[in-house]
Write a structure and sequence with these properties.
Elements lengths: L5 H27 L7 H10 L4 E14 L4 E5 L4 E4 L5 H4 L13 E10 L6 E12 L6 E2 L2 H6 L6 E13 L5 E7 L2 E7 L14 E12 L5 E7 L6 E5 L29 E11 L3 E6 L2 E7 L10 E9 L6 E11 L7 E2 L2 H13 L13 E13 L5 E7 L2 E7 L4 H5 L6 E13 L14 E8 L6 E5 L6 H85 L5 H28 L9 H12 L7 E6 L7 H20 L6 E8 L4 E8 L18 H11 L3 E6 L5 E8 L4 H11 L8
Parallel strand pairs: 3-5, 6-7, 9-11, 15-17, 18-19, 21-23, 25-26
Antiparallel strand pairs: 1-2, 1-4, 2-3, 4-5, 7-8, 7-10, 8-9, 10-11, 10-12, 13-14, 13-16, 14-15, 16-17, 19-20, 19-22, 20-21, 22-23, 22-24, 26-27, 27-29, 28-29
Helix pairs in contact: 7-8, 7-10, 7-12, 9-10, 10-11
């Protein structure tokens, strides 16, 4: 059977259709899991319109350029071109490559991933790159400078011609080329192998092919175009640099940016002047008359201020004033730097403002880049990055910084704010478009924004007068110290006042207590004297009368028996004994023997009298230098001693009593101690006022009223010690005199 059989042909056709159907269904299922396939222009538009700034998408196009060294990939279709970024962040950078290593320009690719807004124009962040085949390499277009400088040709491959004015190598080895194109300058980023030395391309006319990037700010706003080369072959030298840089046309310093019949060429020019300031490897300043210019150098020719030089370089006006960039220096002579112009910063601002208002040139010059000198006051010393030192100066109505960028800066750091100085340096003026009317800023003449003085060495700062020692900081410290002292004095006065008040209160209380003790003592004396006088005048006299009558009875007798006489004699003896006892009581009730005697003598008398019949068991000792004791103080101490001796003899059954009085002249104190060897007691268990015993309580009260210390030490079987310590006061004599004058004199004995 052959394939021509109708049945066979139908089966084969059915199988083919079924396979196609299954394949289409599978393709539709795969398409359902994929982001939409979009033209590049449409994908960019959707990303810009998205609320999140991102759009999942697939794009299909041709690789217009790729360079892993510079770090870019460009994909282009019929609608637009777009930058492709291999990674989104540092974590992704360390992950697997999403772009094949063997990818090259001219391949057709399918990219799946996300389109986001990017830093200026939208970009593609791939998740997958699939090579579909080969295609024709996109052809570079001639640059349209208007579109280029408006930022409209982002990611397009273009070609342009210009003169190389800057050629510098960055730290990663890539080259930054400044290309002047019809009086405009564009930055070109080139691979490492583009040039061997920067001087090989300077002043050469070249043709560059590359992809358009952008210089933008942090808000994603376009500032200037930038061209990125794919390989070193994308730069072709059309016209090499001239033989010698100094064969270039000469333009005097005072005519660099001024009106000329012929425009200044984009190639090198030469000028000359006297060096006023050198920053090796970076820049120098030249001056010719009152015209100064800044030269950004490419070499490190050793120069000092005063050298006469020629400069070959390119005109640049990025500071809104003419200068030279890419300068090559040739020393042609030596000499002295120009004499500095004595002019103050405020006058420079005024001269420039008046010339601008009159639409005239400043005469004799605007002093930018010139060596000037003026007096100033140092306001502050600052340390800047790169080890530079900045002095903040005040000169009349102007404030400006003076910067020194060399090894002499340590000398300036020792200057003190407030120092009056005379400073010399090169003036650098920063210009700004007219800020008063933003609508006219781009069409108006610039005005001065800031003045900066560049110092050549520390010798440019001459101290005229050192600052007063009374600097604001020191004055603030002094005022703070004075305020602290005043606050401390006020606090001390408050504390002292409270202390004096408390001390006065304690002193008054003590004086009152001692006076009360004196008053009580004197009152006791007066009462005792009165009672003694009464007893003397009544009972004692009566008893003596009885004795007299009994004696008379005995003398007259009426022949009574001897027994009667004996009884009368016994009665007489009893009366005499009662009289003696009553005389002892009267003596005890009278004043303690203080007046006319020393304290030691009075203490001995008290001991003898109190220990009548036991005097041989009482010892009185005095130590220290004896001084005069006020009567009321001595009286209270004697009464305390009398009570303590009486207690020892009457209640403690003591065999020996020691009375010690210790005088301390330096402290003005009297320490009185009465000890015995009696049976003792446990302190706190003795009878008190509630039981009708007032002896111990009375002793304590007497001593405490004098402001003294009183203590009793005793133990059962170990005897008892009564201790008192009283201080003599300066005012005791006054109290003593008052009380003594108020007390009537009584006879000491009958």
């Amino acid at each position: 059977m052959t394939m021509t059989h109708p049945m066979c042909r139908a089966c084969v056709l059915g199988a083919v259709l079924a396979g196609l159907f299954v394949g289409m269904a599978s393709a539709r299922e795969d398409d359902g899991d994929q982001p939409p396939l979009l033209p590049i222009a449409e994908a960019m538009r959707l990303a810009l319109e998205s609320d999140t700034g991102t759009v999942p998408a697939r794009i299909r196009g041709v690789v217009a350029g790729v360079s892993r060294e510079v770090g870019f990939l460009i994909v282009q279709d019929d609608s637009a071109s777009m930058w492709v970024v291999e990674y989104r962040d540092e974590a992704a950078r360390a992950g697997p490559d999403r772009v094949p290593n063997d990818l090259h320009a001219g391949q057709r690719v399918m990219l799946r991933g996300t389109v986001d807004r990017g830093a200026y124009a939208p970009r593609f962040l791939p998740d997958r790159v699939e090579v579909l085949g080969e295609a024709a390499l996109p052809v570079a277009e001639a640059a349209d400078l208007d579109r280029l400088f408006l930022g409209l040709d982002n990611a397009r491959k273009i070609t342009l011609e210009g003169v190389v004015q800057v050629c510098e190598q960055e730290r990663w080895g890539r080259w930054h080329i400044g290309l002047a194109v019809q009086s405009r300058r564009i930055a070109v980023l080139a691979p490492k192998a583009t040039v061997a030395q920067a001087t090989d391309l300077l002043d050469a006319r070249v043709r560059v092919t590359g992809f358009v990037g952008s210089v933008r700010n942090s808000r994603g706003e376009f500032l200037a175009p930038r061209l990125v080369m794919e390989t070193e072959a994308d730069l072709v030298v059309e016209e090499p640099a001239r033989g010698s840089p100094f064969d270039a046309p000469f333009i005097a310093a005072n005519a660099l940016g001024r009106f000329r019949a012929e425009p200044v060429p984009t190639h090198r020019i030469t000028t000359a002047g006297v060096v006023t300031l050198v920053q090796p490897g970076r820049m120098l300043f030249l001056q010719d008359g009152l015209d100064g210019i800044r030269v950004v150098t490419t070499g490190s020719t050793p120069l000092v201020p005063g050298d006469h030089v020629r400069v070959a370089g390119f005109l640049e006006q990025s500071r809104k004033i003419a200068g030279i960039t890419g300068g090559i220096i040739e020393k042609i002579g030596v000499g002295q730097p120009p004499s500095p112009q004595d002019i103050e910063p405020a006058d420079i601002v005024r001269i420039n403002r008046e010339a601008r208002d009159r639409w005239m040139m400043t005469l004799p010059g605007n002093y930018d880049g010139c060596l000037i000198r003026f007096p100033a006051r140092l306001m502050e010393v600052k340390s800047l990055p790169r080890g530079a030192t900045q002095l903040v100066l005040s000169s009349n109505d102007a404030t400006l910084p003076a910067i020194l960028d060399n090894a002499d800066q340590k000398r300036l750091s020792r200057l003190t704010p407030g120092t009056e100085i005379r400073v010399t340096g090169v003036l650098q003026i920063d210009w700004v478009d007219d800020p008063s009317d933003p609508q006219l800023a781009t069409v108006s003449d610039p005005t001065i924004d800031r003045l900066t003085l560049l110092l050549r060495s520390a010798d440019d700062v001459v101290v005229v007068r050192a600052p007063s020692w009374w600097t604001p900081a020191r004055l603030g410290i002094l005022l703070g110290g004075v305020a602290t002292v005043l606050a401390g004095a006020l606090a001390w006065a408050i504390i002292l006042r409270r202390e004096v008040r408390a001390t006065t209160f304690r002193l008054a209380f003590e004086m009152q207590s001692r006076r009360d003790a004196a008053v009580e003592f004197q009152a006791t004396l007066r009462e005792r004297n009165r009672l003694a006088a009464n007893l003397h005048d009544t009972l004692l006299q009566t008893l003596r009368g009885i004795d007299f009558q009994l004696g008379a009875c005995q003398a007259r007798g009426d022949n009574s028996e001897n027994e009667k006489i004996e009884h009368l004699d016994v009665a007489r003896r009893m009366v005499n004994h009662a009289a003696e006892e009553l005389r002892g009581s009267v003596w005890a009730l009278r004043t303690t023997p203080v007046a006319g005697k020393s304290f030691a003598e009075s203490l001995a008398a008290i001991a003898r009298q109190t220990g009548h019949g036991h005097a041989e068991h009482i010892a009185v000792r005095t130590s220290g230098t004896v001084f005069e004791v006020p009567q009321f103080v001595a009286g209270n101490l004697l009464l305390m001693a009398q009570e303590a001796i009486h207690n020892a003899l009457a209640h403690a059954d003591a065999g020996q009593v020691d009375v010690d009085a210790e005088f301390d002249v330096s402290a003005g104190t009297i320490r009185l101690t009465i000890t015995d060897d009696g049976r003792g007691f446990t302190p706190g268990t003795q009878s008190g006022p509630d039981q009708g015993h007032f002896g111990l309580t009375g002793m304590r009260e007497r001593i405490e009223r004098l402001g003294g210390m009183f203590a009793i030490e005793s133990r059962i079987g170990g005897g008892t010690a009564v201790r008192a310590k009283v201080a003599k006061r300066d005012y005791d004599s006054c109290i003593d005199i008052i009380e003594r004058d108020a007390t009537p004199t009584q006879p000491m004995s009958a």
